[in-house]
Structure formats: structure tokens, C-alpha cells
Amino acid sequence: MATGTHTVEIPADVQAVWDYVSDLEKWATAVPAYKEHKIVNDKQSIWTFEGSVKGIKKTIQAQVDITEWQEPSNIKFELKGLSDNFTGSGLFTAVESNGKTTMTCTLEVRAGGLSGAVLTPVIKLAVPKVASRLTESIARKIAVFS
What we know:
Elements: E1 2-10, H1 14-21, H2 24-27, E2 34-41, E3 44-53, E4 56-70, E5 74-81, E6 86-97, E7 100-111, H3 116-145
Antiparallel strand pairs: 1-7, 2-3, 3-4, 4-5, 5-6, 6-7
């Protein structure tokens, strides 16, 4: 299993952070290697990523299921690979203090099946970077809109 956690302080109140992260359409493009997404319903979407590892180009599809909306501070979700055998989960938390909000993104991904041995080293490198880049990108966008 690979885990990544990243925390940022955003110069905005917790409601502004919630308004942004609770709308998947607003931050979908902030996910590293993002190619496209499709909203299935208010709790489920399909995300497509495209990247390259050691010169090999790869397209990955994942189903994202929101498992908990707890306004204004928590969003939990689960991931399921549609193109590759992996599962995972994630969490956004937001805590306000003195007019600023501390937002943390945690992401866990597990590779399974026969491809797990090949995918695990790549996932262990990628997941912390994805958590960091996603959190920083969302923070920048919220700061601009606030």
C-alpha cells in the first residue's frame, strides 16, 4: 500500500474551502495526470489519467465513490481501478482557525492481482506526489477565488 498526506494553510474561511472541494467539477482538473472525467451521479464519477513511467505511456481509469460528505470539514472517498487492479481511499479535511483554513488531503492506494508486484513500486512513488500536488493546486485555486 502507498500513502500520501499533504497539508496546506489557505487564506480563506472553511466555508470557502468546502464550497470548492465539495464540487468535483471545480477540482477534477487539478489532479496530476488528469485527462478527463465523467460525473455519473452526485456521489460517483469516472476519472481518466494519462501519464508515463520510464518512457511507457499509460492511461488509467478509476471510479471515485464519495462515501461521506460532512459539511464543512470532511469528504471521504474510495477508488477502484477500472483499467488496472487497484483500490484506494482518500480524505479531505478542513479546520478553520483565525480566518484561515488548514486543509489536509490523504490518499491511500493498493495494487492487487498479478500486476500488483509491478504497480506497487510505481504507486509508492506516485501517491505522495499526487497528494501534494493536488492539495497545493486546490489551495492555489481557492486562494484566487476567495
